[in-house]
Amino acid sequence: MSDRRHKIEAMLAEDPSDTFLQYSLAMEQRSEGLNDLAVEGFRKLTQADPPYVPAFFMAAQLLVDLDRISEARTYLRDGIEQARQQQDTHAAAEMSDYLAMLGREGE
Q1: Which CATH architecture is the domain 3-102 placed in?
Q2: Which tens digit of pLDDT belongs to each residue from 26-35?
Q3: Which end of the chain is less congested by CB atoms within 10 angstroms, N or C?
Q4: pLDDT score of 104
């Protein structure tokens, strides 16, 4: 376990509802190659109320790295919708561009 992850987990123990810390933990897990944990962390953030928009994009990027393209497309579509609902046009545009880069199903 990295020192950084240990510190994030300690801070989360004090404030488990801190969305940014949850996101930071998933990012650290990703960087350590703990992909299943990272995907699960991002998934939880996408199902929070309100959903944490950056988690959709990071989940999609990780899933592409894992060659799980169909799942990545789903996260991107859902993320674009959430970004628009939260009036985050920048995030919606970034995810739209990434989705276009992935191409259509079956290509």
Answers
A1: Alpha Horseshoe (1.25)
A2: 999 999 999 9
A3: C
A4: 72
